[in-house]
Amino acid sequence: MSKETTIVSQQLSTKEGAFTAEFEWPVTLAIDKGLDGAVTNKSKVGYVDGDKGRLIYQGYPVETLAENANYEEVAYLLIFGKLPNEAEYAEFDSKLKAQRKMPIEVVKIMDIIYDHKHSHPMSLLRTAVSVLGVLQKNVMDTSRENELRMGMHLIASMPTVIAALHRLRLGLKPVEPDITLSHVENFLYMLHGKKPAALDVKLLEISMILHADHGMNASTLTAMATSASLSDLYSSIVGAIGSLKGPLHGGANEVVLQEFLKIKSIAHVTEYVAGKVAKKEKIMGFGHRIYKTYDPRAAVMKKYASKLKEEVEMFKIAEVLDKEVVAKYGSKGIYPNVDFYSGIIYKHLGFETNFFTTIFAAARISGWLARILEYRAENRIFRPRDVYIGEFNKEFVERKKRV
Ligand SMILES: CC(C)(COP(=O)(O)OP(=O)(O)OC[C@H]1O[C@@H](n2cnc3c(N)ncnc32)[C@H](O)[C@@H]1OP(=O)(O)O)[C@@H](O)C(=O)NCCC(=O)NCCS
Questions:
Q1: Using CA atoms, how far apart are residues 335 and 325, in angstroms rounded to an integer?
Q2: Does ligand 1 come within 6 angstroms of the Cβ of 285?
Q3: What is the pTM of this model?
Q4: Is the CB of 341 within 6 Å of ligand 1?
């Protein structure tokens, strides 16, 4: 029985207020705060094994995919349930490439509303996706064919939006997509205006694969709950981006890097951890609702982050912090999560800190899409309940007589 269940039972069993009349006593209600333990649907898309620290996409361990596949193959796998053969890959890839370009209206709107000091890139990305949806035709057609078309449009165009925002922020002109390049190569090319180094392509490829899907997390649930009312895909993804932005979810990667910068050197890590423990504050980049052991994605990220010579000082801070927090909280099941090492890689790739979560969104779009399409086949609107703990039959008092 959860803590919340006990509290509610106590409140109700005091027989205070009008509840006395409404319920037969005793009343026991369970509240699963944060829908902890709730099971919404069946899925073949992916599996998060929190005890063993495993993540599976359509049957394949994520580490195998990260080492051997590219992002396009993984997106295809999540959506269609199999790795593409040559012909399937060529068709999927050419459809994505054809949709990379961003409509001029989006660039203009972003340029007008972009307040370089205050606009968060995730808010701009959310707005840009919304505008892309306004410019699309037939968005309310929820057939698989149409939702797949729109979803592939988003997979293809989100990197273009993010790279353009990055360049507008620096006062530079957006770079047109290059269809001779792969999805990830092109992302980095549009960001910096030059062909990326092979190591950088590998780093972003791995990161985007590791972030492509992750069970019924907050943003996926948001996307699915929006979509399940038979709303359009763009609205679902706008909601998902809003959810992902929060620091308890995707936004943690940004905060983690800010914390590394505050810590400054490994000499201050112990003091930092002690301060957090004393103030009972969470340490960002640690902990997970499902993983009670090392997040497998964090392990891969750590391996690649450790290779970056330019980021060695920051990596050292991360590694010591990792050890100290696990020593303190490992017995409670608190270990580094995917957001702990990813920022070191994104910094190396030339992304500004407040852009980190946009990369997560550009990767997770394929998981959001795969799960929306899967759920459509047996669609049912989401409608959980809450427990009313207010009063009944209050007397209405005219405004001028109210105290
Ligand atoms: C991910 C997260 C939101 C999961 O939340 P949750 O499943 O609702 O877990 P709770 O917040 O209820 O935490 C459960 C317990 O672990 C502790 N805990 C969880 N994350 C912690 C962290 N990062 N640092 C220290 N303690 C933590 C809580 O204080 C709580 O302890 P208590 O039972 O003694 O009160 C949570 O671990 C967190 O906030 N982490 C930091 C943000 C982050 O890195 N997010 C990215 C996730 S990929």
A1: 7
A2: yes
A3: 0.94
A4: no
